[in-house]
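hey so u asked for the seq, here:
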Amino acid sequence: MFSSTFEVMHRHFREYPEGIEQVFRGAGIASFPEVAAVNRTERQFDCALRVRTKSGDAFVLIFEALRGPTEDKLRRWSR
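ran it, C-alpha coordinates below
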Protein backbone atom coordinates (compact mmCIF):
# COMPACT_ATOMS: atom_id res chain seq x y z
CA MET A 1 0.00 0.00 0.00
CA PHE A 2 1.33 3.43 -0.91
CA SER A 3 1.56 6.13 1.73
CA SER A 4 0.67 9.78 1.31
CA THR A 5 4.42 10.59 1.44
CA PHE A 6 5.02 8.56 -1.71
CA GLU A 7 1.94 9.91 -3.48
CA VAL A 8 3.04 13.51 -2.86
CA MET A 9 6.37 12.82 -4.61
CA HIS A 10 4.65 11.15 -7.57
CA ARG A 11 2.09 13.90 -7.96
CA HIS A 12 4.75 16.62 -7.65
CA PHE A 13 6.82 15.30 -10.57
CA ARG A 14 3.73 14.73 -12.72
CA GLU A 15 2.49 18.29 -12.13
CA TYR A 16 5.94 19.95 -12.18
CA PRO A 17 8.13 17.95 -14.59
CA GLU A 18 10.81 20.65 -14.44
CA GLY A 19 11.45 19.39 -10.92
CA ILE A 20 13.01 16.26 -12.45
CA GLU A 21 15.66 18.39 -14.16
CA GLN A 22 16.30 20.28 -10.92
CA VAL A 23 16.84 17.05 -8.94
CA PHE A 24 19.35 15.64 -11.42
CA ARG A 25 21.19 18.92 -11.92
CA GLY A 26 21.32 19.34 -8.13
CA ALA A 27 22.96 15.90 -7.99
CA GLY A 28 25.66 17.11 -10.40
CA ILE A 29 24.24 15.69 -13.64
CA ALA A 30 24.51 18.85 -15.72
CA SER A 31 23.69 17.22 -19.07
CA PHE A 32 20.17 16.08 -18.11
CA PRO A 33 17.77 16.96 -20.99
CA GLU A 34 14.94 19.48 -20.67
CA VAL A 35 11.70 17.64 -19.83
CA ALA A 36 8.63 18.45 -21.92
CA ALA A 37 6.09 16.01 -20.43
CA VAL A 38 5.68 13.04 -18.09
CA ASN A 39 3.07 10.27 -17.93
CA ARG A 40 2.25 7.98 -15.03
CA THR A 41 2.68 4.28 -15.77
CA GLU A 42 1.59 1.02 -14.13
CA ARG A 43 3.99 0.28 -11.31
CA GLN A 44 5.55 -2.50 -9.29
CA PHE A 45 7.82 0.04 -7.60
CA ASP A 46 7.24 3.36 -5.90
CA CYS A 47 7.07 5.59 -8.97
CA ALA A 48 7.67 5.34 -12.70
CA LEU A 49 7.31 8.22 -15.12
CA ARG A 50 7.51 8.13 -18.88
CA VAL A 51 9.38 11.32 -19.77
CA ARG A 52 9.44 13.10 -23.12
CA THR A 53 12.12 15.76 -23.59
CA LYS A 54 11.76 18.99 -25.53
CA SER A 55 14.17 17.57 -28.12
CA GLY A 56 11.76 14.65 -28.74
CA ASP A 57 13.60 11.89 -26.85
CA ALA A 58 11.71 9.69 -24.38
CA PHE A 59 12.70 7.53 -21.43
CA VAL A 60 11.28 5.97 -18.27
CA LEU A 61 12.43 7.29 -14.91
CA ILE A 62 11.92 4.99 -11.90
CA PHE A 63 11.97 6.17 -8.29
CA GLU A 64 12.24 3.94 -5.24
CA ALA A 65 11.71 6.05 -2.14
CA LEU A 66 13.33 4.72 1.02
CA ARG A 67 13.12 6.20 4.48
CA GLY A 68 16.51 4.72 5.31
CA PRO A 69 18.99 2.04 4.24
CA THR A 70 17.32 -1.28 3.49
CA GLU A 71 19.67 -4.23 2.97
CA ASP A 72 16.98 -6.31 1.29
CA LYS A 73 16.32 -3.69 -1.40
CA LEU A 74 20.04 -3.05 -1.93
CA ARG A 75 20.50 -6.76 -2.73
CA ARG A 76 17.46 -6.96 -5.03
CA TRP A 77 18.20 -3.73 -6.95
CA SER A 78 21.86 -4.56 -7.59
CA ARG A 79 20.98 -7.43 -9.96
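The two ends are 24 Å apart (CA to CA). The mean pLDDT is 77.
lmk if thats what u needed
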